[in-house]
Amino acid sequence: LRTSAVSALAARHLARPDSSRLVLFGAGAQAWAHAQALTQVLPITYVDVVGRSPARAEALAARIRDELGVEAATGTEQAVTEADVVACCTTAREPLFGGGLLRPGTTVIAIGAYEPDARELDDATMGRATVVVESRSSALREAGDVIQAIAAGVIAERDLATLRGLVRGEVSLSDGAVRVFKGTGMSWQDLSVAGTLQRRLG
Fold first, then answer.
1. Are 181 and 167 in contact, with CB atoms under 8 Å apart?
2. Side-chain half-sphere of 57: how many Cα atoms within 13 Å?
3. How many CB atoms lie within 10 A of CB 17?
4. CA torsion 142→10→120→146, rounded to 10°?
5. Which of 106, 147, 159, 163 has the fewest Cβ atoms nearer than 10 Å?
6. Could you tell me whether strands 107-110 and 85-88 are parallel, antiparallel, or unpaired per DSSP bridges?
7. Residues 4-26: tens digit of each pLDDT
8. Per-residue pLDDT tens for 25-56?
9. Could you tell me which of 40, 47, 49, 57 has the C-alpha nearest to residue 20?
10. DSSP assignment of 29-71, as one string?
């Protein structure tokens, strides 16, 4: 719940207002949660589900059609060429697609790689992107996508924008640049969810 909620917050500020096509990498609980959250904050009308298991990917696509009322089907990594938003919710250790496939202005949400030696996004994606993280210190410690891109010299620590700055309108977004939100999860998010639940149940 908290991971997809933070992603939705980032997407609401990063994605173009008319974003209608979502590509989901992954077919597990986080992919479903992101489908729910992103379709609530963006005018998504079509979802491509890309997963290692065709059966699980089709099951998720069917659930999106049935429960969210949004057209959905299984796809391949080539689907990112038409995406407005890409959500990476996997346990991948290597990049899921080539960054050169993305159209300018595409928003990419990456929440799966949270170890220094794992990544979902390649250097091509990171190098052409405005990169937003929850916390620079957390990203430099845990986010393999960020750590490896810095090591390769395609971005620098000073290039990292924060979610706080994004929400406050302090991050400049170019129509020609890819927009990346790299989430690692932070304790304040758990506290926020717990507080909300307590207020609603109390």
1. no
2. 19
3. 7
4. -40
5. 159
6. parallel
7. 999 999 999 999 999 999 999 99
8. 999 999 999 999 999 999 999 999 999 999 99
9. 47
10. HHHHHHHHHHHHHS---EEEEE-SSHHHHHHHHHHIIIII--E
